[in-house]
Design a protein that fits this description.
It is built from ten helices and four strands; from the N terminus they run βαβαββαααααααα. By secondary structure, it is an alpha+beta fold. β1, α1 and β2 form a beta-alpha-beta unit. About 35% of the residues are buried. Bound molecules: glutathione (GSH).
């Protein structure tokens, strides 16, 4: 049986974190682009791999089932290789606590703020204000944490640093001042300088960027409606900006 792993994804933080982990572990893997703006995630063949029709999904012959959810994938790979997840308690529990913080807070909340930054300025003041305040608090929480310690949890570089680092590039894109988050910046750059992280970004860029841009530019209004979960009950907003990002 081939030992090559297959990762289905696109160039988003939830996917990049898994590519970083695969590079850190020096595993053989293939990247397959899923054209989410062309609704490929709703194909029955893809839904057989991913219960909610979302990327990333990892196919690993050693596991015996396709695995979705980036936190579950990082946890599996850490257990498989015995790396980037401390053996001893309470360090292991602390890493899992911060992994859950990333999965339940950092990803979803920064994702919502990104969404409400895409609609025309001023059209959603309540949502923009709410998710902006949550994003500000999360960036502050991370900076405060990293002012006190080198890594987010467990005393060493782990799956929680790998899971969180790709999300922190939204800091500038969300309009926050990097100078007010010096510890977050220093930690982000320290991770970015790791050879495995550089290789991961190069591979993800080669596999995903051009194809994703093409599929985004070709997205119809109906494609964008489905991607953003807009039904007849949700007032239509102009998301055509997405085609030119
Ligand atoms: N909690 C999931 C989130 C996955 C997720 O939202 N994936 C996005 C791309 S980053 C996706 O597949 N979107 C397509 C869709 O929702 O239709 C994880 O961390 O893996």
């Amino acid at each position: 049986m081939s030992e090559t792993l297959v990762l289905h994804g696109m160039g988003s933080p939830n996917v990049i974190k898994v590519v970083i982990m695969l590079e850190e572990l020096d595993l053989a893997y293939e990247l397959r682009h899923v054209a989410v703006f062309a609704q490929e995630q709703f194909d029955p063949a893809f839904l057989a791999l991913s219960p909610l029709g979302k990327v990333p999904v990892l196919e690993d012959p050693r596991l015996g089932m396709p695995l979705a959810e980036s936190g579950a994938i990082l946890h599996w790979l850490a257990e498989r290789e015995g790396r980037f997840l401390p053996e001893q308690q309470p360090a292991r529990a602390e890493v899992m606590q911060w992994l859950m913080i990333q999965m339940a807070n950092v990803g979803p909340m920064l994702g919502q703020f990104t969404h409400f930054n895409l609609v025309p300025p001023g059209s959603e003041p309540y949502a923009h204000g709410r998710y902006g305040a949550i994003a500000a608090k999360l960036y502050r929480d991370l900076d405060d944490r990293l002012a006190r310690q080198e890594w987010l949890a467990g005393g060493q570089y782990s799956i929680v640093d790998i899971a969180t680092q790709p999300w922190t590039y939204y800091l500038e894109r969300h309009g926050f001042d990097t100078r007010e988050h010096p510890h977050l910046l220093e930690w982000r750059e320290r991770i970015a300088a790791r050879p495995a992280v550089q290789r991961a970004n190069e591979r993800a860029d080669a596999a995903f960027t051009d194809v994703a841009t093409l599929s985004r530019k070709a997205a119809s209004g109906a494609d964008l409606d489905r991607f953003f979960n807009r039904t007849d009950q949700v007032p239509k907003k102009d998301f055509s900006i997405v085609r030119n990002m």
